[in-house]
Amino acid sequence: MTKKYFRGYILIRLKIVGKEWDVVEKLKGLSSKEGEGDWKITYATAIYGGWDVIVECAFSDLNELDTVVTYCRTEEKLSEWVEETTTLMGTRDDFVP
Fold this sequence. Notes:
By secondary structure, this protein is an alpha+beta fold. The chain has one domain (6-89): Alpha-Beta Plaits (2-Layer Sandwich). Helices cover 28% and strands 33% of the residues. The chain has helices at 20-27, 62-74, 76-81; strands at residues 6-14, 39-46, 53-59, 82-89. The longest helix is centred in the last third of the chain and has 13 residues, at 62-74. The radius of gyration is 13 Å and the shape is globular. The relative contact order is 0.33. The mean pLDDT is 94.
């Protein structure tokens, strides 16, 4: 049986214009280490509008979403660039990354 995940979206607004692709590169492909949760960033890209970057992540437990959001806000370089985040999540664990 294939394991299913919840899907979350993190919208990021930056303090510094022009760092969108640096943020994307920093986040692209990140995942939990063995034994430290079960999450992964499945997509990240710069966007137009009121937000600068959107990040899609897959996770099996709500605490893991908190881990991803906290990383986006507190990692050394990201904390210099990220002004604000907002997080959305799907209501069902029906995503297969």
